[in-house]
Amino acid sequence: MKQNTSSLLKKHLKEVLVVEPNDLGFPLLTAVYRKINIFFKTAPFIFVVPLSILGATGLVYIFGYLAVRLASLLQYGF
Amino acid sequence: MVSDVTSLILFFRYFIGLIFTPYVTMRKISLEKNRVGLVWILFFTVVYFFITNSVRYWINGLLGAIGLYIWSITFFTFLPSPGKIKEKCERMFKTWTYTLLPTLIWFYTTLLFYFLLPPPRTTSIWGKSFSIIYIAFSVSLLIWKLILVYLSIRFSLRIHLYRIIYYILVYLAISVPLWLYLYSIGISRVPFV
Fold it and tell me: What proportions of chain B, in percent to the nearest 5, are helix, strand and coil?
């Protein structure tokens, strides 16, 4: 049992270390990148969907007819 | 029959995983030896182009999609990165295929809406509301697609952020004229990538 857990942990560690962590060259930049990256790693839709709705509402509010035309163009795009 | 059911379950597990935990799931896909789940993406792609048969010659669209798919995998595989070409190609093949999921969802939904709420949209309150929902939906899928593409390149080529951004920019610089060409000869309006 102990050996099984150990081999599972080793396998998981090997999986995790398959790529080196990103280093952006500047410690501050790397720290900011890691903080933002957390949102993309797990359930990104939690902030992506509300942001998209806000963006789309702003787009329609600012550009009006052009944004509606964009939606029509996209609908013809399949 | 059993293997079909198993592969479908595996495909849905990865599909749900790519929504909730894209990082861990894409890493798992890149290390996985089993490729049976990929068949379902191919199946749904062929079915999609078969359905659009009534609108235009589907064989052209399908050939265009296959061409873009092969082009994308080949392009990224042969870019400088550590590891053997064969291993990189295999990982790229598995992970890039799963990046087609947002594309498939967008194309199926657009096809459905084309018949349920035919364009063009108007500037009435209903037209604007639908435009907001549809643009938000498209942008969300595009961001999800970008996340998956980033993770696909990251785990297939095992390179850093700067190089991934650089490679994506080079890819777009070559691909955008190609997409425009495909549009001009009537194969695809929105590229199936």
Answer: 80, 0, 20
How far apart CA A40 and CA A27 sit, in angstroms, is 20
Report CA B166 to chain centroid distance, whole Å.
20
Residue with structure tokens 């861990």? Answer: B24
pTM passes above 0.90: yes
Query: Per-domain residue ranges for chain B?
Result: 2-184
Distance in angstroms (rounded) separating the CA atoms of residues B153 and B104: 20
A47 and A70 both lie in a single domain: yes
Number of domains in chain A: 2
pLDDT per residue rounded down to tens, chain B (193 residues):
557 788 888 889 999 999 999 999 999 999 988 777 788 899 999 999 888 866 665 567 888 899 999 999 999 999 999 889 999 999 999 999 999 999 999 999 999 998 888 888 888 899 899 999 999 999 999 999 999 999 999 999 999 999 999 999 999 999 999 999 988 888 888 888 8
Q: Tell me whether residues B113 and A75 touch, CB distance under 8 A.
A: yes
Give A10→chain B minimum CA distance, Å: 15
Complex ipTM value = 0.89
A51 lies in the same domain as A18: no
A37/A52 same-domain check: no
Same domain, A38 and A63: no
| Domain of A34, in residue numbers | 1-42
Note whether A1 and A38 are same-domain residues. Answer: yes
Residues of chain A positioned with their CB less than 8 A from the CB of B122:
68
| Pairwise CB contact (< 8 Å): A68 & B27 | no
The verdict on A35 and A66 lying in the same domain is: no
Contact B132 A60 (CB under 8 A): yes
Residue B55 to residues A70, A77, B61, Cα–Cα distance (Å) = 21, 12, 11
Same domain (yes/no): A34, A2:
yes
